[in-house]
C-alpha cells in the first residue's frame, strides 16, 4: 500500500462502550488459533476487565488499546502483553476486524504503537510470535522492520494440528 494512502488511526484506551467490540473479538473462535485464548468470555467478565484495567502497563502487565479509523469507528484492538520491565520489552498482539483487513489499518496501528512504546514506555524491543502460515501478518510486520528467523516448532495448536511459529523482533532504538 502506498505510504500516502495509508489510513490515519488513533489508539485509545478502552471505554465501556467498547464492550460489544471486545465481546465480538474475544468470542470469535476463528481467532483462537492466533491467540492463547480458547474459551469464550462472558459480557460480565469483559465488562469487569474494562472496568478494572488501569491502562498502566506497570500495574496491569499489559496495555490494550482500541484502534479507531478517521471517523471514530473501531476497526480493531492492539495490545502489548508479557511486559518485562527489567528488559524493556513486550509482546505485540493485534486483531483487525474482518471487514477492515488488508486496508492498511494494522500497519498504521503498529506504527503508532511503536512510537508509543518508545516515547512513553521507553521499551527497547517489541516482539511478535506469528504462525508461519500467517503470511499477511508476517508481511505487515517485516515491512515495518520486524525481523527474525527463530522458528518455534509445533508451537501453536489449532484445528487438530500443530503449527510452527516464527519470533519477529523490532528493536526500537536501532531504527
Automatic annotation (TrEMBL):
It holds the Pfam family Acetyltransf_3. Residues 9-173 form the N-acetyltransferase domain. It comes from the Bacteria. This is N-acetyltransferase domain-containing protein. GO terms for molecular function: acyltransferase activity, transferring groups other than amino-acyl groups.
